[in-house]
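Marked as duplicate of an earlier ticket. Keeping the data here for the record.
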Amino acid sequence: MGSTGFSKYIWGGAKVFMNSKPKLMPLDIDPYHYDEIFIGTPVWAWTYSPAIKTLLEDNYFSEKKVYFFCTHEGGLGKTIDKAKTIIEKKNTYVGSIDFENVKKNPKEQIIKAINWVKTL
């Protein structure tokens, strides 16, 4: 398993295409105590990461207002649409945003994030 260079993209993409849902470590907080939840993920092979797949699909929370965001360096794919579909099964999907080219334009993306949060 490679974790650097191009091999990390091959390994991560393979996990997505194999529909991997890794077991998560126990959460440090109990989502039950919150009305609103923000979920963020990098985009892996045009969707959310396998860990977020587990979080969204294995009923870690329900009846919450959920905000979704993702980061990517180009290929957003259907990440937001897929997340919205899963979130809406047991929660209220409030909104989402994606941040593109964060490594190349960090200041621009920080401003974008601040402006998004101000609208919520």
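See parent ticket for discussion. Helices lie at 5-17, 50-57, 79-87, 106-119.
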